[in-house]
Amino acid sequence: MTAPLYLDHLASTPLDPAVFEAMRPWLDPAAVGNPHAARHRPGWRAAEAIDAARAEVAALIGARPGEILFTGGATEANNLALLGGTPE
């Protein structure tokens, strides 16, 4: 029996195991923090993690960290690509 071929990526996309392992520390409810909250430790840790991820992605593609923007989804990314500016 062969494994089913999943084609409904619009509904959800299977997570690569390496991505899951990289995200595992941040999926723990104790690690939740708003990276824009500058007045508490969970916010600082979240901001540091995002900055590290931004630097890692930039290094992979030969960009500067300031050129890497993360969005919350396709609509936000499409608007950013079409309208420009920064996602805020």
Mean pLDDT figure: 87
Low-confidence stretches: none
Which bin fits the share of residues in helices? 40-55%
* Strand coverage percent: under 5%
Domain Aminotransferase class V: 6-83
InterPro entries: Aminotrans_V_dom (IPR000192), PyrdxlP-dep_Trfase (IPR015424), PyrdxlP-dep_Trfase_major (IPR015421), PyrdxlP-dep_Trfase_small (IPR015422)
Catalytic activity: (sulfur carrier)-H + L-cysteine = (sulfur carrier)-SH + L-alanine
GO molecular function, one term: cysteine desulfurase activity
Question: What labels describe this entry?
Answer:
88 residues; mainly alpha; extended
Walk me through this protein's architecture.
By secondary structure, this protein is mainly α. The chain has a domain at 38-87. The protein is built from 3 helices and no strands. It has helices at residues 17-27, 41-61, 74-83. The longest helix has 21 residues, at 41-61. It is extended and about 55 Å long. It catalyses: (sulfur carrier)-H + L-cysteine = (sulfur carrier)-SH + L-alanine. Keywords: Pyridoxal phosphate. This is Cysteine desulfurase.
